[in-house]
Each structure stands twice: as structure tokens, then as C-alpha cells.
Write a structure and sequence with these properties.
This protein is an alpha/beta fold. The protein has 3 domains: 103 residues, Gyrase A, domain 2 (2-Layer Sandwich), CATH 3.30.1360; 143 residues, tRNA modification GTPase MnmE domain 2 (Four Helix Bundle (Hemerythrin (Met), subunit A), Up-down Bundle); 153 residues, Rossmann fold, CATH 3.40.50.300. The protein is 44% helix and 18% strand. The chain has 14 helices and 13 strands. The strands form 2 sheets. It has a 7-stranded mixed β-sheet. β4 and β5 form a beta hairpin. The chain starts with a strand and ends in a 7-residue tail after the last helix. 39% of the residues are buried.
Length: 444
């Protein structure tokens, strides 16, 4: 028999209210044992909120609102009860402890959503979208998660799977009737359909970078020599004093990372140690970390002091040049340099942060980020599944083109189907589900 699980669904800390959730076959019975009101919990209509008291040992613990969700029309597909109590830390802990004493088990991370998946309330892409929705840092990320939660990505995968099933059924028909052979015309038609599958897979795979940016942010490294104003620029972009600013070169010894929203795009700003000949072991390590971040960066803001002469080395055109300290005047050697001229002392105007934000957005969007359409944005797990499916589909097409027997073609198609099925959870394993849902917060 499935266990009944319980958890606090709201964030830890004090607040106006806190919500606790029960799910499982004994959810109603457990709630009934501690809830006192005009009607018993078992008598309440679905989705009807009832005011009452939580009573333990003859004493009232709190006055709450209780809601019952009947199976299968609940988030998990099971009998569910949600209790909204006052949001104090102690009362929330006491209420959770009371539910556990009455026979519920503490829910693990993501266990409510995992049960929703196992009970057919959503596919695996939708389950993952729940956490994306919670963690979204920008409007674009929020919209992408909402689209995936609605089943947009899952729908595309189901269509792809149906196409593969149809092709496989056609091929297996020749296996069942060995006297029939795959004619050149039929083989060409099957190859064309597999080409279509390949194009669909390639299109989905192209959204991987977009998905990574929406979920993790654009890795943006603030790079430059010491004392050019990297930390000042970080503080201005963030809108608060995050990094220590000093006229002493080499103040920043370690990297500092923060996330900001620029034109709907999440940027992971990484302030790095200034690059120069290191004076000690600590600064040497800081510079080494700077170089490692440069290798992994999606975007590099190369910051220079525009009031000083231009250095002799060539500037990398792949990096966005930021001519800082423009309020001190621009040195003639920078005349004609293609970059954004800013002053960290000015929050608005042509030398403020807005032109830099526009330039950053232009670089990211110009780099292939389809910000206008975020309905499909796969994650790293999806990418691995689709890459496997593409490889097997291509192998099936090659087997057809080489005139191999239908059995070889069918074997590759079955593997492609399994890879696609892994993405939405048609072929699931306990290890896979455990890895996915372990990243969820408790109570979801």
C-alpha cells in the first residue's frame, strides 16, 4: 500500500501563512484525526475550504483553513489535503510533527511531483518544468517553464515518437512477411521519413543553448586589467554595493558571482581578479580562476580605462569592449574604438548603464538566442536523450540505404524509440527518477 506523505510546501521562515500538504490513501483519515470543525474532513466536498482548528491533547494548536482534493483530480492523482496555518516557524513544525505522529511519512524532495508523474498526471518534461517554474529568474525563463508545463515540449516528443512507431511498424511488417522485400521505392520513402525525424531532432537540439541560458543564465565575465572599474561596474549593474571598490590595484582576489535581469535575459555576472603579473600566491590563484572563467564564458565584457592610453595588444572582437571612466575624458588613442562608453558614476543617460544593457542584449540575441520564441527549450538531460535518438535514427537510415535486412533497421529504430521515450518517461528507471526529483524542493 502506498504510504501517505506530508511536508511543508511554503518556504522556511516566518510569514502570514504556511501551507502543509498530505498525499496518499490515509491523507483524509490523518487530517480527520486532528481537525475540528462543523464538518469532518471526510464529509467536505472537493476543493472546498473549511475553517477549523488543529487540536492535539485537548489543546488548540492553531486555527487553519483545510482543503480536500479527491483522487484522481488532484496534483498527485491521490487523495490530498492541504492545511493553511499561521506562518510561524514553531506552529508549522508542530503541525508537521503532528501529521507524522498520526502516520504520515516525511516527503522527500520532489516526491509530490514524482507521484504526479507516476500516476500519469504529467510527463517527465512537465515534471521538470515545475522546478524550472519555481527557479525562473526572468520573464523569459518563466514563460518557457510555463510553456513546458502546459505540455508543449512533451507534445512535440509524442508526435516524434508516433512517427518513429509508424516507421518501425512498416519495417516490422517486412520482418513478419519475409517473402516480401523492401523495394527501392519503399526504402526511399522510409529514408525520407527518417530524414524528417532527423530534422525534427536537430531542431529540438538547437534549443539546448537557449534552455541552458534560460535556466542558468548567460555566463558573463567582467575581464580587464586591475583598477579599470570592473567591481564598480558590477555594483552599478546590480544596483547595490556587492564588491569592494578601492583605488588599490588587485583588491579583487577571488571571483564574485551574481545574477541580474537584462532585457528579460538572466546574466550570471562574474567579477574577476585583474590580470597582471601576480605579486603573491593568492593573487596568482585569483588570476588563474579568471582565465578558467574566460574559457567557459558565454560573453566577456572586456573593461578598459578609457582615460588611459590604449594598450599595445590587439583587442579580441568576440569580446564586448566597455570603455569605462569616460567621465574622466577619453584618451585620443581610443578614438574610433568600437565599444560601449560608460561611466559608473552615471546611472542614466548616454554614458549610463542602459546603453551597455542594450549592447549586452544585442550580443546575446545576435548570437542565436531566439528570445521571441521560448516555447521549446530543452535541458541537458533532454539533449542527451535526443542526441542518442538522432544517432540511432541516422543508423537506421544508413542501414536502409545500404540495403541491410529489415531486422537491422528495426533494431536501430527500437533504440531510437527508447531514447525518445526516456525523455518523457515512457522508459523510466528508479535511478533516473531519483536523480531528477532529488533536485526539487521538499513539498513539491
Amino acid at each position: 500500500m502506498q504510504e501517505t506523505i506530508a511536508a511543508v510546501c511554503t518556504a522556511f521562515g516566518e510569514g502570514a501563512i504556511a501551507v502543509l500538504r498530505l498525499s496518499g490513501p490515509r491523507a483524509v483519515a490523518i487530517a480527520d484525526g486532528i481537525f475540528r470543525s462543523k464538518r469532518r474532513v471526510a464529509e467536505l466536498p472537493a476543493r472546498f475550504q473549511q475553517l477549523g482548528s488543529i487540536v492535539t491533547g485537548g489543546l488548540v494548536l492553531d486555527e487553519v483553513l483545510l482543503t480536500v482534493f479527491r483522487a484522481p483530480a488532484s496534483y498527485t492523482g491521490e487523495e490530498m489535503v492541504e492545511i493553511a496555518c499561521h506562518g510561524g516557524i514553531l506552529v508549522t513544525r508542530r503541525l508537521l510533527a503532528l501529521l507524522l505522529e498520526r502516520g504520515a511519512r516525511a516527503a522527500g524532495p520532489g516526491e509530490f511531483t514524482q507521484r504526479a508523474f507516476l500516476n500519469g498526471k504529467m510527463d517527465l518534461t512537465q515534471a521538470e518544468a515545475v522546478m524550472d517554474l519555481i527557479r525562473a529568474q526572468t520573464d523569459l525563463g518563466l514563460r518557457a517553464a510555463a510553456e513546458q508545463l502546459e505540455g508543449r515540449l512533451g507534445g512535440r516528443i509524442r508526435e516524434l515518437r508516433e512517427t518513429l512507431v509508424e516507421i518501425l511498424a512498416h519495417v516490422e511488417a517486412y520482418i513478419d512477411f519475409p517473402e516480401e522485400e523492401i523495394t527501392p521505392d519503399t526504402g526511399a520513402a522510409l529514408q525520407a521519413r527518417l530524414d524528417g525525424v532527423g530534422e525534427t531532432l536537430a531542431g529540438l537540439l538547437r534549443t539546448a543553448d537557449q534552455g541552458r541560458v534560460l535556466r542558468e543564465g548567460v555566463r558573463t565575465v567582467l575581464y580587464g586589467a586591475p583598477n579599470v572599474g570592473k567591481s564598480s561596474l558590477l555594483n552599478r549593474l546590480l544596483g547595490f554595493e556587492r564588491a569592494i571598490v578601492s583605488e588599490t590595484p588587485g583588491t579583487t582576489r577571488d571571483t564574485i558571482e551574481e545574477v541580474i535581469n537584462v532585457r528579460g535575459l538572466p546574466l550570471r555576472l562574474i567579477d574577476t581578479a585583474g590580470v597582471r603579473a601576480a605579486h603573491d600566491a593568492v593573487e596568482r590563484e585569483g588570476i588563474a580562476r579568471t582565465l578558467r572563467h574566460l574559457e567557459r564564458a558565454d560573453l566577456v565584457l572586456h573593461i578598459v580605462d578609457a582615460s588611459q592610453p590604449r594598450p599595445g595588444e590587439a583587442l579580441d572582437p568576440a569580446r564586448l569592449l566597455v570603455l569605462n571612466k569616460i567621465d574622466l575624458g577619453e584618451h585620443p588613442s581610443w578614438a574610433g574604438a568600437a565599444g560601449v562608453r560608460v561611466s559608473c558614476l552615471e546611472s542614466a543617460g548616454p554614458r549610463g548603464i542602459d546603453p551597455l544593457a542594450e549592447a549586452i542584449a544585442g550580443r546575446v540575441l545576435g548570437g542565436g538566442f531566439a528570445g521571441g520564441d521560448v516555447s521549446i527549450a530543452i535541458n541537458a538531460r533532454h539533449q542527451a536523450c535526443l542526441q542518442n535518438a538522432a544517432r540511432f535514427a541516422q543508423a537506421a537510415r544508413a542501414a536502409l540505404a545500404d540495403g541491410l535486412s529489415a531486422e537491422f533497421v528495426a533494431l536501430e529504430l527500437h533504440s531510437a524509440l527508447d531514447a525518445v521515450g526516456d525523455m518523457v518517461g515512457r522508459v523510466d528507471t528508479e535511478d533516473l527518477l531519483g536523480k531528477i526529483f532529488s533536485t526539487f524542493c521538499v513539498g513539491k
